[in-house]
Amino acid sequence: HTHSGKRQMQFLKKLTQKFKDIQKNTAVAQTASDIMDAAQKGDMATLRDFFEGAPDIPQSSAAAYALAAACDGGQKSAAAYLLEMGVPACTTRTGLQEPVAYAAKGGHSEIVTLLYAHALKTGETPSPLLQQEWHKVEQDMLKAEIRDAGTLKNNLRAMKPISIRKAPLQN
After folding, report:
1. What is the predicted pLDDT for the residue at 32?
2. What is the mean pLDDT of residues 33-40?
């Protein structure tokens, strides 16, 4: 009886430890989910509360996931904050796609520009994907400038010339 009782106690200890591990992992997963949700919505207060004073932010998976979420949600201020905290613009460490992939998919050209500028500013080599997406944004900006210049030219052409007649001199 004592032998089976001892085995039962060991089993219960293992089961209890597994349950504690599951609870801990669930809490970590919940925190990560909350951070990603905050980044995607641009909830700067939650992001600051979580990351202010946190060690090793550039190596943090939570920060990398948050940057991807901010890019996906089109949240420029959240993305800029995370980049300034040291998260690399071209991070793929999380197993997710690069942040630029999410920004481009959502049509967030201002975030593509932010990522590209940040990579250049910090000496990070822009990835081929970031370069490709930046060139698309650049082309779109150029097309918009050409279209705007054409519109201005057509508007000027459509204007009636103003005739200036000399008024007779009053004596």
Report:
1. 75
2. 90
What is the pTM for the complete model shown? 0.69
Task: Report d(CA 36, CA 43) in Å as an integer.
Answer: 10
132 contacts 101 by C-beta, under 8 angstroms: no
Q: What is the pLDDT of residues 139-168, one digit of tens each?
A: 998 898 888 888 877 777 777 666 666 666
Distance CA 34, CA 51 (A): 13
b/e map 71-100, b = 16+ CB within 10 Å: bbbbbbebbebbbebebbbbbeebebebbb
Residue 35 in contact with residue 66, Cβ under 8 Å? yes
C-alpha 40/C-alpha 55 separation (Å) is 22
For residue 71, which of 35, 31, 30, 115 has the smallest C-alpha distance?
A: 115
| CA 73 to each of CA 1, 17, 132: distance values in angstroms, whole numbers, following the listed order | 61, 38, 21
Nearest to 61 by CA among 21, 30, 32: 32
Closest CA to 112 of 96, 125, 129, 93: 129
Q: The tokens 């000399």 sit on which residue?
A: 166
Report the run of H or E that residue 128 belongs to, with start and end.
helix 128-158
